[in-house]
Amino acid sequence: LIEALRAVVPETGGVLVEASDRQPYETGWRYGRGVARAVVRPQTTEQVADVLRLCHERGVRVHAIGGNTGLVGASNPDATGEQVVVALERLRRTIDIDPVDRTVLVDGGVLLSQLNAALAEHGLVFPIDLGADPQIGGMVVTNTGGTSLLKYGDVRHNLLGLEVVLADGTVVSQLSPLRKNNTGLDLKQVFVGTSGALGVVTRAVLQVVPLPRQRATALVAAADGAAVLALLQGLERSVGSALTVFEAIHGEAYRATLRHGANLQDPFRGAVPTYTVLVELTSTLDAAQLDLEELLQNALVAHVEAGAEGIDDVLMDPKGLGWALRHQISESLRHEGTVLGLDLSVPRSRLAAFSAAARDLVQARFPFATVCDFGHWGDGGTHLNVVWREADVPEGFHDGGPEGLKHAMQDALCELCVAQFGGSFSAEHGVGPHNQRFYDRYVDGPTQRVMAALRAALDPTGAWK
Amino acid sequence: LIEALRAVVPETGGVLVEASDRQPYETGWRYGRGVARAVVRPQTTEQVADVLRLCHERGVRVHAIGGNTGLVGASNPDATGEQVVVALERLRRTIDIDPVDRTVLVDGGVLLSQLNAALAEHGLVFPIDLGADPQIGGMVVTNTGGTSLLKYGDVRHNLLGLEVVLADGTVVSQLSPLRKNNTGLDLKQVFVGTSGALGVVTRAVLQVVPLPRQRATALVAAADGAAVLALLQGLERSVGSALTVFEAIHGEAYRATLRHGANLQDPFRGAVPTYTVLVELTSTLDAAQLDLEELLQNALVAHVEAGAEGIDDVLMDPKGLGWALRHQISESLRHEGTVLGLDLSVPRSRLAAFSAAARDLVQARFPFATVCDFGHWGDGGTHLNVVWREADVPEGFHDGGPEGLKHAMQDALCELCVAQFGGSFSAEHGVGPHNQRFYDRYVDGPTQRVMAALRAALDPTGAWK
Lengths: 465, 465
Hints:
The structure is a homodimer.
Chain A: H1 2-8, E1 15-16, H2 19-26, E2 38-40, H3 45-58, E3 62-65, E4 84-87, E5 95-98, E6 103-107, H4 112-120, E7 124-125, H5 136-142, H6 149-152, E8 159-165, E9 171-174, E10 200-207, E11 209-210, E12 214-222, H7 225-239, E13 243-250, H8 251-260, E14 275-283, H9 292-305, E15 311-316, H10 321-327, H11 329-336, E16 338-345, H12 351-365, E17 370-376, E18 381-388, H13 404-421, H14 436-442, H15 445-458
Parallel strand pairs in A: 2-4, 3-4
Antiparallel strand pairs in A: 1-2, 5-6, 6-10, 7-11, 8-9, 8-10, 12-14, 12-15, 13-14, 13-17, 16-18, 17-18
Helix pairs in contact in A: 7-9, 7-12, 8-11, 12-13
């Protein structure tokens, strides 16, 4: 097999078999660990197709890896040592920008940062903003959302064309940049968000947007979740599509981040709001046409003067204190103790009630733990982190083994989210070993049945993954 | 069968069998004509499910009809007289608006105009803008685009949840208003744009947006298609997301409309531009914050002063002369003679070249005919109309029967569009009897194969349609 793979990908480093060479592909950025039989690094769609065909013919299972930034354990191979890992990082030759079309044809292995550097030369940007630096192919199969979904939508909203290699090596090439094309089934939609289960994305055509010329940021101290939602609704009415980011950080997460983060200033100087709301406006207009700083300040003042309840403080934040804090939350929580990180969403209007209910649940059933949530209140997504010190865990809670406590919490909070609040157990991280059981439990029958039909049609021998 | 249907939908007028009662459902608004065995008008999802189950059990084919505004002959039953038509017009009870969530749960039979009237009370709008008044369910299955796709996207971009009844009466209910939900296959995507071939849409959850507070419109006289595209690119950079409509009307269409339209003023007073560009900005900001009229005028002046070629005239159009003209094109062309109306799209940057090539083709092969195109240059869509007087058609062109000439033109222009310009034979009208042969010819194998697999999974006995 290894020789056959080397014949297909003959370039230096095209096939890795040594343990030390394989290791970076076997271990996730934060979670995930497995063993690969070999790691193959193709440079072209044809090589990807040849590798998949070869493995398919021999009944060898394959596992694709992009930027290895996933958070559900799906980036890495399983523990069997049988899977061939197909790493897409060398599929990085093409970034073809058409400024008149406002689109770009890009290879699946290109990093988001590389794409945006190339686009910036044309005054353009691919407007999916997130903390990691994933590959474009990985972003498509996980339908990445990020912090500015409110304004720009997710990857699906910005995807025009796609090239995918199926398990048997068939190349499905639909690389048209058409914005209007209603000729029946839009096949690319079935690959978006299915975590690569139906094929490997080798190229994509994306719609991109003009780079903003202005940005204005503010921090708002809110006394409760209801005040956060009222502010959201007020700003959408007053500043409209300039509203790009609307995040809220709970006081527990805020406090932990100030304790452990590096080079942070405390914007509210000691007062810890129940929720700290990070608001950002962007515009392609220059300040002479529309002063965003003034627009945002006026909108916030007007909201308070109109009698909004629960707004305790408003600060313009030109130095980005809020963003600095926001970016250090996840790492800071790890310094507090053990962290269970859940990526949930509920209907936007129910987020305040859901956060309160989650807090009540943890207080009642796991009183040694603290809920430290922060999230994208503009789109209903919340990173619900539960944090505790192992020393505080009473006897009995660890009876279910080392993962038993985490699983019990995860089960209880996902049940609350999905069954009681009509929410999602995976807002933007996708499905992988870490949350597969919730897929089995909560995804409806017709969806599972259609997914099985698609797999039967696109991967008839089940060789894939 | 009729009795059994009456038992399921017992309300007055629930089942229509008289020829005069069936007739409005058998004949399209502009195209399409067939014969129905009966017309059933259910009022609830349960009734729709019962009707479909009943027909499924008896092997009776069904055909759903929404607002009957389709343009590809797909709204009406076929000529066999065997199909039961399911009309959704009484499925019109629910318009549940959640202003905090900025979403609405709506029955499939609700008209776009009804939905927007209800939303306006909350300062909201469903931002799909088009000439007809379709039902929401029909808009979902045809993935309607319209004139402001540039800013708001198509129906798919604004669809959060869906309820569909499958051929056997199974109800697939995914009515969640979640904006972030990446738990594998997004099943609703396979129903969008497939013209109802996989099920009947009974309810939908839509994302809606704040009503604009301002609107500014201008008309620009452009000497050629290249000037139109340069203006588009310039405006996207200068006014960004305020740009909502960017349409261009060719001189031939413009001239015909002035000849036949009612109560029209000629904005350019006799001069007929090669392309008349209709530009519209909208904003939720009020004029004190951002004067749109001024912004648009300044942007157009700056574009010309920066040396743009081929811009012959610029007029602000506060009275809507351009829109009045735009809305009367299709009907006006009919007064000129026989019309072949094609709904095509190409990559946006190739629209100028495509329009020129289409003109050359018609001139060379059908010199008695005139191309009168107008379209959504902002998204690459063009309504390419070919117009001629039957008296001018030379001998021999009608040898292929009454539809032969139209078919020959349609074949040649679709081939030019799809094969040479990477375009679509149906930008926004969907697939129906009028263009089914292009589906068979141009839609790629994998898409047709997956569609067959989906039909096998969702409609195993093929009773549907």
